[in-house]
Design goal:
The protein is an alpha/beta fold and about 1200 residues long. Strand 31, helix 37 (about 1190-1205) and strand 32 form a beta-alpha-beta unit. This is NB-ARC domain-containing protein.
Length: about 1200
């Protein structure tokens, strides 16, 4: 039967349509598969892009760091060249070696390549997000695969560059170079990224969520749980803790910022993954068995991703090998007893379970012995590593990390103990077949592997998550007091507008000081608006130019405006009119410049201030005659060394190197700019004897700042100051001269004009102060209350003073040197080889200063021969000044009595044992200095020296003056008894001393230091004599026995000595009322020191009523009570307070408004003293020194100062660890 045509056609029709449908379905399926495959390809590209982007970000950040430190080094080199130091520099501050340069060039190429394909990737990403995603599937396929190939290539190139970073230690080079540059940069450093790191709000639940996710993951065997916990939970905990420890740290480099940013991204991604996985069960309604089979692989895959991200983060930290740095000032970093106890407790927490683990090993089957011993060894190794880490200096900065270390170590040991216990228990259980007996070991062996891997990673991560402590190498040295004084001036409550000035030579630190003042918290609180306008050395006084510079700093510009524009006086004035501001005008060189600028400043009455810096004091006085200019001094010897030490490539120097380096620093004259220029010369080099000698030899004494200052301040000095300054040139270069010696010499030389109302010594000290303020003399050493101890002439000025066109010493003055030191002027040097020639050339000498530091008797003999020859020939008979200080036992000729014009005889530090009796013939002698000699008894002829004003004796050697005649001593000398003596220092008095009778007749005494060993009856006589010394200003009394130990001291009230300002008492006070009674001492007292006084009642309630008291010191045994109270309103003028060796003192209370002006506080060896109550009330303290005190006390003090923000951040805390 045939098929009808209709049916056939219908069949063919359906077949055709079915074929078409199949083709369409096939094409649709193919297209969907193609799109899905393409989408997966893009997802792989996106994942690769993220990874490469992060690595690119790290690489780019490090490249920025290299270029930044290189640029900073280049600026240092330019400054060194400007200072004239370039001729000594063989290397640049920052040197890129060949390998580093190659890395930089290759990295730039890689970065350009990455930036090239990044644009294409971003276009692909945007197209994919748009509605064109279907068309993107066809057109973007080749691009995706092309970009994937490019990306793989870039990733390989980046990995090569990262490997080079580790091999060439690029980060270490950057960190080392940054420290070098930092030490040479201007102070204070103006950091672009000065804000401390602030961690984002942490998700407190991330660790709990991870723990919950692990516990809910189905069918996880113990090994898998360990792997998840040790590879995800452990590093995550440590990372979060480390970021918490970083809080407040200033991130100095771009690589640090980039890594921290990635750390936050990693934590966020893990948080997101955990949240997403926790939502899976709510989306699934399948049977549990089926659900678990699907869910576990997904979770394990997610865990693997988390592990990879964390591993990659720590791996990159290891490969880049950079360091987080916390910089600290030169203060001790020590651990408190609590911290030490806590560390010991942590060690016990770990040691105990570790011992349990070791004990269990004894019961383990033999098959596991080797692996267990290896694991035990690794546990002890990591434990030892942890103990060493806890001992690292500054580990307290890792408080959160330390807690995590301890907890994780305890967890590892606990898990190992549990695992070992289970294995031992299962191994001892009887089983029916061999296979079951091997199962416990297979499982345990896998767990042992996880423990070992976890311990190795644990140790590695601790090494990576560290903050290294480095001493700050860019500190402002010696400006604390200056900052305080200027801030006080500027914030004094008065509404009148005023202009204040900082005056000093170029390079002395005026700009640094002004910036520090601007950054001071008191200033920031007092002035809402603060500005700094700096002018170059050569500035045009054209009004428009100055206004443009001023306006562009002050006036706020709107967005879109150009960088600079012209301003009118009215615009600037209107801008400032309603503001309470502090404006620093830096480097005002001329009066005309100030006259031009001042029109822009409104005379408002809201307390606004201008602070200008200038090198010329006349400019400062011209700007505002009502405000005294603040004169910035040269740095002291100690301050100069501390500044120089910051610039050293190596922190520690040998004794020989240090001695030579100190000589180099001394040659800088205390000028910070000169000191830093030495740092420029030494940067990038190892400090060696040869290098320092080369620097010392080539230091240019005619540096521009010194010449400019000489032109400004040196040439126009008054005649008396010119003579004083020229006298410094008599001393060897870089000499350190005692202030007392210098003052006495100036008076004897006649450099000080007579004044009817002031002692000549006071005028001489004022002259010295004036020269110091003019930056012509360097104050080398000062005591705690700011008094000058030693000073010297900067070597550059020594050369200038010795030039023919400058003031030079007259021919009558001879500096006599054994060897020619640094050349000053060869004609003015004597030597033992030409003494006769010198005496013939220099007739009628008026002054001789001897300098000979040789040991042995030869110097003394040669000088004795010279003096004998000169006196015998008559060439020295006009001598008025003879200074033999530091000459070892000079032979004084008996004929020295012929030097009747002699006014000054200096024998300090000569160790002489006797002095000729003919000294009594020196009728014009005004000063005799015998301190640090071995002269026990001075000849009785001394009593004849009617013009003697200053007598310094050796108190330690019990020096005294013999009576001139036997019998009634006073009858022979009455009316003829040292009547002009003003200073008697270092004298000794016993029962037989004639001084006990003569003392009351020395009516003109102003300063008296007297040690005595007297019966109480004779002490009564001494007390009566003392109250008759109406002119006495300084009184130092020591009651001692044969061994110099303190004895009873019996004194009457001294309130009648109305000129007494400085009192020192050594010995047990038989009448404590002299101290604890307001009428016992005069109100004129400014300085009081007590030692061995044995006061039992708190002296503070009475002493605080002495309203002029500025310095108060309690030495050993002065107070034996337990409590002290400084009450409200007491000690209004007190500046310095010391507590030394007060063994019984336990409590010290400081009430509000007590000691409102206190600057310096010292506490030493008061072992029972607790942290003073009310310490925060001492708001003006600038320096707090702590020595030989319990660690707990020191730590509590440092903590207290931080809590109270004591001194607004300007206080310096010193402990005996570094002082």
């Amino acid at each position: 039967m045939g098929i009808s045509p209709g049916f056939s056609n219908l069949f063919h029709f359906y077949v055709l349509h079915f074929s078409i449908v199949l083709i369409v379905l096939f094409l649709s399926a193919y297209f969907i598969i193609f799109l899905l495959n393409n989408n997966r390809s893009f997802q792989r590209l996106e994942k690769s892009f993220k990874q490469v982007s992060w690595e690119f970000k790290l690489l780019d950040a490090l490249l920025e760091d290299v270029e930044a430190v290189s640029e900073s080094g280049r600026k240092i080199d330019e400054k060194a060249h400007q200072l004239g130091s370039s001729q000594l520099r063989s290397v640049a501050t920052v040197r890129l070696d060949e390998a580093t340069r190659g890395w930089v060039d290759a990295t730039k190429t890689v970065i350009r390549n990455v930036q090239g394909w990044r644009k294409t990737y971003e276009e692909l990403s945007e197209r994919r997000k748009s509605l064109k995603w279907i068309f993107f599937g066809f057109s973007g396929y080749k691009k995706i695969h092309g970009r994937q190939i490019d990306l793989d290539s870039c990733s390989s190139e980046i990995n090569v560059q990262i490997w080079e970073i580790h091999r060439e230690q690029i980060c270490k080079f950057v960190e080392s170079s940054r420290s070098t540059v930092r030490s040479l940069q201007d102070r204070p450093i103006e950091e672009d990224k000065g804000k401390p790191y602030q961690k984002p709000a942490k998700s407190a639940s991330i660790e709990k969520k991870l723990k919950a996710l692990i516990s809910k993951t189905p069918d996880l065997v113990s090994v898998e749980k360990m792997k998840v916990e040790y590879s995800i939970k452990f590093p995550l905990q440590l990372l979060i803790a480390f970021l918490q420890d970083l809080e407040g740290l200033i991130l100095e480099s771009k690589i640090e910022e980039a890594w921290v940013e990635e750390a936050h991204d990693t934590i966020d991604e893990i948080q997101h993954d955990i949240d997403r996985k926790q939502e899976i069960p709510t989306l699934m309604s399948w049977p549990p068995s089926f659900s678990n089979k699907i869910r576990k692989p997904e979770l394990m895959k997610s865990f693997s991703g988390m592990q990879s991200r964390l591993l990659r983060l720590f791996l990159r930290k290891q490969e880049f090998d950079f360091t987080f740095i916390r910089r600290y000032q030169s203060q001790s970093v020590h651990r408190s007893p609590q911290q030490q106890t806590q560390a010991t407790t942590h060690e016990k927490d770990i040691s105990a379970p570790l011992d349990d683990f070791s004990n269990q090993l004894k019961h383990a089957p033999p098959v596991a012995t080797y692996q267990l011993k290896q694991l035990e060894k690794l546990f002890h190794q990591v434990h030892q590593f942890l103990k060493e880490e806890n001992a690292v200096e500054g580990i307290e900065n890792l408080k959160n990390s330390k807690t995590v270390w301890k907890d994780q170590m305890k967890t590892l040991i606990k898990d190992a103990n549990n695992s070992l216990s289970t294995y031992i228990r299962n191994s001892t259980t009887k089983r029916s077949n061999t296979q079951s007996e091997t199962d416990p070991w297979q499982k345990f062996s896998a767990e042992l592997g996880e423990f070992q891997k976890a311990l190795e990673l644990f140790e590695s991560r601790i090494k990576l998550c560290r903050i290294e402590l480095k001493e700050e190498t860019n500190l402002e040295v010696g400006l604390e007091e200056d900052i305080h004084e200027i801030v006080t001036q500027l914030t004094t409550k008065r509404d009148r507008f005023s202009t204040h000035s900082i005056v000093g030579m170029k390079g002395i630190g005026k700009t640094t000081l002004a910036k520090m003042v601007l950054n001071n918290k008191n200033i920031q609180n007092h002035f809402k608006y603060r500005y700094l306008v700096s002018l170059p050395d050569s500035v045009d006084d054209d009004k428009n130019v100055l206004l443009k510079r001023l306006g562009n700093v002050l006036v706020t510009r709107t967005p879109g405006e150009g960088k600079e524009k012209d301003y009118s006086f009215k615009e600037v004035k209107d801008f400032l009119k309603v503001k309470k501001y502090l404006l620093v005008l830096d480097n005002i060189m001329r009066k005309e410049t100030w006259d031009t600028l001042k029109e822009a400043f409104p005379e408002n009455k809201n307390g606004s201030r201008i602070l200008l810096t200038t090198r010329d004091k006349s400019v400062a006085s011209h700007a505002d005659p009502s405000c005294d200019p603040y004169r910035l001094r040269l740095r002291t010897k100690e301050e100069s060394w501390n500044l120089f030490r910051q610039t050293l490539p190596q922190p520690q120097l040998s004794l020989d190197l240090k001695k030579l380096a100190e000589k180099v620093v001394r040659r800088c004259g205390g000028l910070p700019l000169s000191i830093l220029s030495i740092g420029y010369l030494l940067s990038g080099k190892e400090v060696t004897t040869a290098e320092l000698s080369r620097v010392l030899e080539h230091i240019n004494p005619y540096q521009t700042p010194w010449i400019d200052n000489w032109e400004t301040n040196g040439k126009d000095l008054p005649p008396n100051l010119r003579e004083c300054l020229s006298h410094f040139a008599q001393f060897p270069k870089d000499s350190e001269i005692s202030e007392k010696r210098l003052v006495a010499l100036w008076v004897a030389e006649g450099f000080v004009p007579k004044s009817s109302d002031k002692p000549l010594e006071s005028v001489a000290r004022k002259n010295l102060k004036d020269l110091i303020e003019c930056n012509l003399v360097q104050e080398l050493e000062r005591n705690h209350d700011g008094k000058i101890l030693t000073c010297g002439l900067p070597s550059a000025l020594q050369e200038l003073c010795s030039r023919p066109d400058s003031t030079s010493s007259p021919d009558q003055r001879l500096p006599y040197y054994f060897v020619q030191m640094d050349t000053i002027s060869s004609q003015r040097h004597g030597s033992s080889l030409n003494s006769r020639i010198i005496l013939q050339k220099c007739r009628n000498l008026s002054s001789i200063l001897f300098f000979d530091s040789r040991e042995g008797d030869k110097p003394g003999k040669e000088i004795g021969d010279f003096l004998h020859m000169g006196i015998a020939s008559g060439h020295l008979l006009h001598l008025e000044v003879l200074d033999l200080e530091h000459i070892f036992r000079p032979h004084l000729p008996r004929s020295i009595g012929r030097l009747t014009r002699l006014k000054y005889l200096g024998l300090r530090w000569t160790y002489l044992e006797e002095i000729p009796s003919s000294i009594g013939k020196l009728v014009n002698l005004q000063t005799l200095d015998l301190k640090h000699t071995y002269i026990h008894t001075l000849p009785g002829s001394m009593w004849k020296l009617q013009n003697l004003q200053n007598l310094y004796m050796n108190g330690i050697y019990r020096s005294k003056i013999a009576p001139q005649h036997r019998g009634n001593f006073l009858n022979h000398l009455r009316g003829n008894l040292l009547q002009n003596l003003q200073v008697l220092w270092g004298a000794f008095m016993d029962n037989d001393s004639p001084l006990k009778d003569a003392l009351k007749l020395l009516k003109n005494l102003r300063k008296l230091e007297l040690a005595f060993q007297l019966d109480l009856s004779l002490q009564n006589e001494l007390a009566k004599s003392l109250v008759e010394l109406n002119h006495i200003q300084t009184l130092k009394l020591k009651s001692i026995d044969e061994m110099g130990r303190p004895q009873d001291i019996d004194l009457n009230h001294l309130s009648g000595l109305v000129n007494l300002s400085d009192l020192y008492l050594f010995g047990k006070l038989l009448k404590p009322s002299i101290i604890v009674n307001i009428i016992g001492l005069p109100q004129s007292l400014t300085e009081l020191t007590l030692s061995a006084s044995q006061l039992s009642n708190d002296p503070m309630p009475e002493l605080e009523k002495f309203y002029n008291l500025e310095s108060l010191s309690f030495y050993s045994g002065s107070y034996i009570g337990k409590r002290m109270v400084c009450s409200n309103g007491g000690f209004r003028q007190l500046l310095f307070l010391k507590f030394f060796l007060l063994h019984e003192l336990e409590e010290w209370t400081v009430e509000e408004q007590a000691m409102p002006k206190l600057k310096r506080l010292e506490i030493r060896s008061c072992k029972r003293l607790k942290v003073p109550f009310g310490l925060g009330n001492l708001k003006s303290v600038r320096e707090f020194k702590i020595e030989d005190m319990p660690e707990e006390f020191k730590t509590s003090i440092e903590k207290k100062t931080k809590e109270l923000n004591w001194g607004e951040g300007d206080i310096a805390i010193f402990t005996d660890n570094i002082y």
